[in-house]
Write a structure and sequence with these properties.
With 354 residues, this protein is an alpha/beta fold. It has eight helices and eleven strands. The protein starts with 12 loop residues before the first strand and ends in a 10-residue tail after the last strand.
Length: 354
């Protein structure tokens, strides 16, 4: 590994956990955009949870349906296992044994190599994992919070429209937490956020993307936009929300990287201090979960209220910018037993409910 490699710069590590039964491949675009701001991003596939996970030896495991009605205990267990997956992955990234794979000549894909048998891999990529960031979408957001509670190396949690589940609802969190919500958030999640808001004892912020759906906070809108409606199901179009995938990607990248920079440096970007109607008019600041509408009809006019067509809404503000690092190159690999990861480091680039 050359000394000018992106992985030799000590760039911060971000672990991202997907939604329930959702592959890490639905977050590759998000990972690339975050990596483009100077972070090393690992998207974790959770075995027996993700729809399909392939291990380095070519064996595969398929997901099981844990989201049965009334099966709350299984969902909580899944959250706790996911948190351990994230901790295991962080350990592997930092212990010098992880190898960054390259696509094989057979075109098998960049995410099929491993730390033990990667083709063309670079050995001993011991990354700086002493201060890492946890992020996740839906159930992945709950897993990120659980991982932060269990491991002090995670210094911030960015929760994309996910609940807080398991022991974290009793012990709370002391570090910075940001909830990036959609207006497809279900009532149960809103109620849980309201109940748990007081035990988030550190810096905290809730913002909301309008108009959007729950799966807007994945690569689903980007895929729909890129494919321009070709070979895209009606359900995928509906789940992606009305905003352009390119626009959603830019918004999420701006808020996520601003939060990560704050968690690492305690420097607060302006978009974390209040609404920015000039650059990000789609993002509102409810102030707390208690201020979210309990009955949320589809919002087509972009405000934080009923679909009245006037485009005006209201919201209370609460309390970096790019960290300035330039990176280049892409790579990914699988890690077991905690699960396979897809790591992105790309420079210059900008399911349903739990």
């Amino acid at each position: 590994m050359s000394t000018d490699s992106p992985l030799a710069t000590g760039a911060p590590v971000v672990l991202l956990s997907p939604a329930l039964a959702t592959s890490r491949f639905f977050y590759n675009g998000m990972a690339e955009s975050i990596a483009g701001a100077g972070y090393i991003v690992a998207v974790v596939d959770h075995p027996y949870d993700a729809s399909l996970v392939e291990f380095p030896d070519g064996s595969t495991v398929t997901g099981v349906n844990v989201d049965q009605p009334g099966n709350t205990s299984q969902i909580i267990l899944d959250t706790e296992v996911r948190a351990q997956d994230m901790i295991f992955t962080l350990n592997q990234l930092g212990n010098g044994t992880f190898q960054l794979g390259r696509p094989s000549s057979s075109g098998a894909g960049a995410a099929s190599s491993s730390h033990s048998s990667a083709q063309g891999a670079e050995a001993g990529l011991g990354l700086d994992t002493s201060r890492a960031l946890a992020a996740g979408h839906s159930l992945g957001g709950a897993a990120a919070a659980a991982a932060m509670m269990l491991d002090s190396r995670f210094v911030g949690c960015f929760n994309l429209d996910g609940e807080f589940l398991g022991p974290v609802t009793q012990t709370g969190l002391n570090g910075p937490v940001m909830i990036f919500a959609s207006n497809g958030t279900d009532l149960n999640t809103k109620q849980l956020w309201t109940a748990e808001w007081p035990i988030l004892r550190g810096w905290k912020l809730l913002v909301r993307l309008l108009p959007s759906q729950h799966m807007s906070l994945s690569d689903t809108p980007l895929l729909v936009t890129t494919l321009n409606g070709n070979n895209v199901s009606e359900s995928a179009v509906a789940e992606s929300g009305p905003l352009s995938g390119i626009r959603v990607r830019a918004i999420v990248q701006a808020y996520m990287t601003s939060f990560f920079h704050f968690a690492l440096t305690n420097q607060t970007a302006s978009i974390l201090q209040g609404p920015d109607p000039t650059n990000y008019p789609e993002v509102t600041y409810p102030g707390s979960p208690a201020n979210l509408p309990q009955d949320d009809p589809p919002d087509r006019d972009g405000d934080d209220g009923p679909d009245d067509g006037d485009g005006s809404g209201s919201g209370n503000s609460t309390s970096t910018a790019n960290n300035g690092k330039s990176t280049s190159g892409t790579g990914s690999g699988n890690i077991q037993p905690g699960g396979s990861i897809s790591g992105s480091n790309a420079g210059g680039s900008d399911d349903g409910d739990d």
